[in-house]
Amino acid sequence: MRIDRTAILSAVLLGGLLTGGCRRVDDVVWSKYTSIPSEGWDPVNVIPFFPWPEDSVTSPDDRFSLLLSVRFTPLRLPAPLHLVMKQEDDSGYEKADTFRIELKTPSLTPTGRGAYGIYESVDTLATGIQLRPGYCVELQSLSVPDNTAGISDIGLILSLENGEENIFKRLHNLPI
Fold this sequence. Notes:
Blueprint: H1 5-20, E1 28-35, E2 47-49, E3 64-72, E4 81-88, E5 94-101, E6 119-129, E7 136-141, E8 151-160, H2 163-172
Antiparallel strand pairs: 1-8, 2-7, 3-6, 3-8, 4-5, 4-7
Protein backbone atom coordinates (compact mmCIF):
# COMPACT_ATOMS: atom_id res chain seq x y z
CA MET A 1 0.00 0.00 0.00
CA ARG A 2 1.48 3.31 -1.12
CA ILE A 3 0.76 6.52 0.83
CA ASP A 4 0.41 9.70 -1.20
CA ARG A 5 2.53 12.49 0.35
CA THR A 6 0.33 15.18 -1.16
CA ALA A 7 -2.76 13.70 0.52
CA ILE A 8 -1.00 13.59 3.90
CA LEU A 9 0.25 17.16 3.54
CA SER A 10 -3.23 18.34 2.54
CA ALA A 11 -4.80 16.59 5.54
CA VAL A 12 -2.25 18.15 7.92
CA LEU A 13 -2.81 21.64 6.47
CA LEU A 14 -6.60 21.26 6.60
CA GLY A 15 -6.43 20.09 10.22
CA GLY A 16 -4.21 23.06 11.11
CA LEU A 17 -6.61 25.49 9.47
CA LEU A 18 -9.64 24.00 11.21
CA THR A 19 -8.09 24.03 14.67
CA GLY A 20 -6.36 27.38 14.18
CA GLY A 21 -9.63 29.07 13.24
CA CYS A 22 -11.04 28.67 16.76
CA ARG A 23 -8.13 30.42 18.49
CA ARG A 24 -9.08 33.35 20.75
CA VAL A 25 -6.91 36.42 21.02
CA ASP A 26 -6.68 37.81 24.56
CA ASP A 27 -9.76 35.71 25.43
CA VAL A 28 -12.00 38.07 23.42
CA VAL A 29 -15.22 36.24 22.52
CA TRP A 30 -17.18 39.20 21.10
CA SER A 31 -16.63 42.82 20.06
CA LYS A 32 -18.69 45.45 18.25
CA TYR A 33 -18.02 49.08 17.33
CA THR A 34 -20.32 51.96 16.40
CA SER A 35 -19.17 55.04 14.50
CA ILE A 36 -19.64 58.43 16.12
CA PRO A 37 -20.55 61.39 13.86
CA SER A 38 -17.73 63.89 13.26
CA GLU A 39 -19.71 66.61 15.07
CA GLY A 40 -19.75 64.48 18.25
CA TRP A 41 -21.94 62.07 20.19
CA ASP A 42 -25.33 63.58 20.99
CA PRO A 43 -26.60 62.48 24.44
CA VAL A 44 -30.00 61.76 22.86
CA ASN A 45 -28.43 58.90 20.86
CA VAL A 46 -28.29 55.84 23.09
CA ILE A 47 -26.11 53.09 21.62
CA PRO A 48 -27.34 49.52 22.30
CA PHE A 49 -25.05 46.49 22.27
CA PHE A 50 -26.04 42.82 22.57
CA PRO A 51 -22.84 41.08 23.66
CA TRP A 52 -23.02 37.34 23.26
CA PRO A 53 -20.13 34.98 22.46
CA GLU A 54 -20.26 33.48 19.00
CA ASP A 55 -17.87 30.76 20.13
CA SER A 56 -19.47 27.37 20.69
CA VAL A 57 -16.98 26.32 23.37
CA THR A 58 -18.20 28.67 26.10
CA SER A 59 -19.93 27.30 29.18
CA PRO A 60 -22.97 28.70 31.04
CA ASP A 61 -20.70 28.96 34.10
CA ASP A 62 -18.18 31.22 32.31
CA ARG A 63 -17.63 34.72 33.64
CA PHE A 64 -16.81 37.65 31.41
CA SER A 65 -15.33 41.13 31.58
CA LEU A 66 -16.89 43.99 29.66
CA LEU A 67 -14.43 46.50 28.22
CA LEU A 68 -15.09 49.88 26.64
CA SER A 69 -12.96 50.80 23.64
CA VAL A 70 -12.84 54.42 22.48
CA ARG A 71 -11.08 55.26 19.20
CA PHE A 72 -10.16 58.92 18.72
CA THR A 73 -7.95 61.22 16.70
CA PRO A 74 -5.18 63.25 18.36
CA LEU A 75 -5.92 66.15 15.98
CA ARG A 76 -8.96 67.05 18.05
CA LEU A 77 -8.42 65.45 21.43
CA PRO A 78 -11.80 64.93 23.12
CA ALA A 79 -12.49 66.11 26.64
CA PRO A 80 -12.94 63.39 29.30
CA LEU A 81 -15.85 61.18 28.28
CA HIS A 82 -18.74 61.01 30.73
CA LEU A 83 -21.19 58.20 30.06
CA VAL A 84 -23.92 56.02 31.49
CA MET A 85 -23.83 52.26 31.04
CA LYS A 86 -27.08 50.35 31.57
CA GLN A 87 -27.16 46.55 31.68
CA GLU A 88 -30.30 44.43 31.57
CA ASP A 89 -31.53 40.99 30.55
CA ASP A 90 -34.77 39.03 30.13
CA SER A 91 -34.78 37.84 33.77
CA GLY A 92 -35.40 41.39 35.01
CA TYR A 93 -31.78 42.16 35.94
CA GLU A 94 -31.00 45.89 35.65
CA LYS A 95 -27.92 47.84 36.61
CA ALA A 96 -26.71 51.34 35.73
CA ASP A 97 -23.33 52.97 36.32
CA THR A 98 -21.70 56.25 35.34
CA PHE A 99 -18.10 56.51 34.17
CA ARG A 100 -15.54 59.20 33.47
CA ILE A 101 -12.98 58.09 30.90
CA GLU A 102 -9.78 60.09 30.31
CA LEU A 103 -8.61 59.97 26.70
CA LYS A 104 -4.88 60.63 26.44
CA THR A 105 -2.51 60.26 23.51
CA PRO A 106 0.66 58.26 24.12
CA SER A 107 3.79 60.34 24.70
CA LEU A 108 6.21 60.93 21.81
CA THR A 109 5.22 58.69 18.88
CA PRO A 110 2.14 56.65 18.01
CA THR A 111 2.82 52.99 18.72
CA GLY A 112 0.76 49.83 19.08
CA ARG A 113 -2.89 50.79 19.12
CA GLY A 114 -2.11 54.30 17.83
CA ALA A 115 -1.28 53.42 14.23
CA TYR A 116 -2.47 55.70 11.41
CA GLY A 117 -3.19 58.64 13.68
CA ILE A 118 -6.10 56.95 15.44
CA TYR A 119 -5.64 56.09 19.09
CA GLU A 120 -7.57 53.60 21.16
CA SER A 121 -8.28 53.74 24.87
CA VAL A 122 -9.59 50.57 26.52
CA ASP A 123 -11.05 50.49 30.04
CA THR A 124 -12.80 47.75 32.02
CA LEU A 125 -16.42 48.63 32.79
CA ALA A 126 -17.57 45.43 34.52
CA THR A 127 -16.17 42.07 35.62
CA GLY A 128 -17.70 38.78 36.71
CA ILE A 129 -20.57 39.03 34.25
CA GLN A 130 -22.62 35.87 33.83
CA LEU A 131 -24.51 36.05 30.56
CA ARG A 132 -28.25 35.39 30.55
CA PRO A 133 -30.72 35.42 27.63
CA GLY A 134 -31.55 38.90 26.37
CA TYR A 135 -28.42 40.52 27.84
CA CYS A 136 -28.17 44.11 26.57
CA VAL A 137 -25.82 47.00 27.31
CA GLU A 138 -26.72 50.59 26.47
CA LEU A 139 -24.21 53.43 26.39
CA GLN A 140 -25.25 57.06 26.58
CA SER A 141 -23.01 60.11 26.54
CA LEU A 142 -23.39 62.65 29.33
CA SER A 143 -21.12 65.13 27.52
CA VAL A 144 -22.15 67.84 25.09
CA PRO A 145 -21.48 66.81 21.46
CA ASP A 146 -18.65 69.35 21.05
CA ASN A 147 -16.68 67.60 23.85
CA THR A 148 -16.84 64.25 21.99
CA ALA A 149 -16.07 65.57 18.49
CA GLY A 150 -12.66 63.81 18.25
CA ILE A 151 -14.12 60.35 18.94
CA SER A 152 -14.47 58.19 15.83
CA ASP A 153 -15.79 54.91 17.29
CA ILE A 154 -17.21 53.51 20.53
CA GLY A 155 -17.02 49.79 21.09
CA LEU A 156 -17.62 47.07 23.65
CA ILE A 157 -15.45 44.00 24.06
CA LEU A 158 -16.56 40.86 25.87
CA SER A 159 -13.59 38.95 27.24
CA LEU A 160 -13.58 35.56 28.93
CA GLU A 161 -12.12 35.89 32.41
CA ASN A 162 -9.12 33.76 33.21
CA GLY A 163 -10.32 30.34 34.39
CA GLU A 164 -7.21 29.81 36.53
CA GLU A 165 -7.98 32.91 38.59
CA ASN A 166 -11.53 31.69 39.15
CA ILE A 167 -10.24 28.30 40.32
CA PHE A 168 -7.85 29.97 42.79
CA LYS A 169 -10.64 32.19 44.12
CA ARG A 170 -12.86 29.12 44.58
CA LEU A 171 -10.08 27.23 46.39
CA HIS A 172 -9.40 30.22 48.63
CA ASN A 173 -13.05 30.43 49.65
CA LEU A 174 -13.43 26.71 50.49
CA PRO A 175 -13.90 25.94 54.19
CA ILE A 176 -11.00 24.01 55.74
